[in-house]
Fold this protein.
Amino acid sequence: MRGLDEARALFETQGRALLREEFPDWENRVAAGLVGRGSECFGFDDTLSRDHDFEPGFCLWLTDADFDAIGVKLSRAYQRRFGSSAAQKSAMAEQRLGIHRIGDFYQRYTGSPGAPQSWQQWLSLPSYALAEASNGEVWQDGPGVFTAEREAILHGMPEDVRKKKLAARAVEMAQSGQYNYARCLRHGEEGAAMLALADFVRAACGMIYLLNRRHMPYYKWMLRGMDALPLLSDMRPALDYLLTGDNDEGGRETKEGVVEDICTAVIRELRRQELSAGDWDYLEPHAFEIVGRIENQQIRALHIMEG
């Protein structure tokens, strides 16, 4: 059973009873679910995942007023029923399960008590932090406060910020994959060539998530997470191959072709979304065309690779 399913079953069979029996006045004011760090929050866990930093449980989120009223008592009741306080902390001593003040929960991911408050925050926050703040499942949320911030994180990125990030990924893909990979090989720097390919794959994944309007998870899960994307998820085998395929002479030629195939697919989607109208095979000029479509002058004036 996946960790998400196990967490929900535990809440439905025991968590609801805890709220109903000991906190009936707040039963419908508590948001419940499983969101945050950990493969189980993304639905990617398996039996191997349980050898490290895994504990059955769920999260309960409270508004400031409700936390002040019952937070300590509810935390003690949760620990009494579902485990010690030590079991609720990650290897980095961060509380993952149990009772949370809504603002504190989001603060650790966004630096704000909810969704990012400015375009500067949206631009600077790492994608994996936004992914962790909005993954998993929420099973109930009577007041709707937690869910409102969650929806803002999932869907609230300003379009000009998305365009700036897309432009930066396009330049990175062009420089690392279309230019530096083959150039490093001609210099006889095979290690540098592989680093270039790794940078290309990371940038290409970032590009694909942005084209899907999704937040890319931590690098360990960015390829796995592509399987659920509606756009360009079929690029995953090609991206895997760039990292794992042989590097003999034939393999090098094949990898150069795979890089170009991925770039061609990305350019096609950029044109479909009307982010670029250019017909260049090289991605870099597309980046500058994307920036030219940014309305916010401050964002448009930033360095092409910022974002």
User: Anything to note?
Assistant: The first strand starts at residue 31 and ends at 34. Confidence is low (pLDDT under 50) at residues 85-93. The CA atoms of residues 141 and 147 lie 7 Å apart.
